[in-house]
TrEMBL record:
The active site is at E274 (proton donor/acceptor). Its cofactor is Zn(2+). It comes from Dyella jiangningensis. GO terms for molecular function: hydrolase activity, acting on ester bonds; metallocarboxypeptidase activity; zinc ion binding. InterPro entries: AstE_AspA_cat, Peptidase_M14. This is Peptidase. The keyword Transmembrane helix does not apply. It comes from the Bacteria. Belongs to the peptidase M14 family. Signal peptide: none annotated. Residues 30-306 form the Peptidase M14 domain.
Amino acid sequence: MGNEAFYPIGTPGQPWGAQERAAWLAKQVKHRSYAQDVLSAIDRLRDAFDVSEYGALTYGAEHYPLIVVRSRGWRDDLPVVLVTGGVHGYETSGVHGALQFLQQHAGEYAGRANVMVVPCVSPWAYERIHRWNPDALDPNRNFRKDSPAGESAALVNLLEPLRDVVLMHIDLHETTDSDESEFRPALAARDGKPFEPGEVPDGFYLVDDADQPQPAFQQAVVEAVAKVTHIADADARGEIIGSPLLLPGVIKFPVKQWSLCAGITNARYATTTEVYPDSPRATPQQCNDAQVAAVRAAIDYALAHRGG
């Protein structure tokens, strides 16, 4: 089935040009506030953590400071554990799960690890509940040094000095019904390709690094999250979003080859969470709690096995 049945912008079979991108951008509407939802929550953490700006984005009249939160009393002899959220702005529990972890649990690792959290990588997209940035680019295909996406370039620059130091990196995402109704059709239209419908998995799953798989690590995270919300089953083909199941609730991608966020550093333990907020079996708070459970389990496993 062609793009014309799925997306109103562009000509089927032809990639978007400047006119189509402008038409797409004109349709984007601000639904929520990065300053109120994210920056205000981070401000309340300043007494307990080191908070700093690692870059900024200016889109038209809008200016977005990019914020990283670090353990107070950072020590070079401690391992670094990294949490990122909001790479895709519409994936709400990634942002609020990261903030909830900071508020409730990050302090528990004082003296054991340097905790580094970037709660919202893509603030413009957070406000518009969207996957792309204003240039119709997906930040999670552009985490590389020469990135055309400002969100991605800023995070790559932040993490470059820690590239070989980070022990664990967990990147918090969601898979939503809008992936099939909006974002994948838009991607097909943007690139002038036919849209091939897929299946949205009902439940939580993880994405492992195909080039450096850590099955025991992934399993520990899945088992922790299973206490909070349900784990996605494979489809009739034994797959989740077109990828074979490695373990219950775990698939793998070549994260560095695809320039995904989880591949920015050379962390021994890396994973990408995928929460399903549209499930009738999960509440928004459960989604946030699932992200927090994943973060805690990932850090705990990495610290327990850092020498192994």
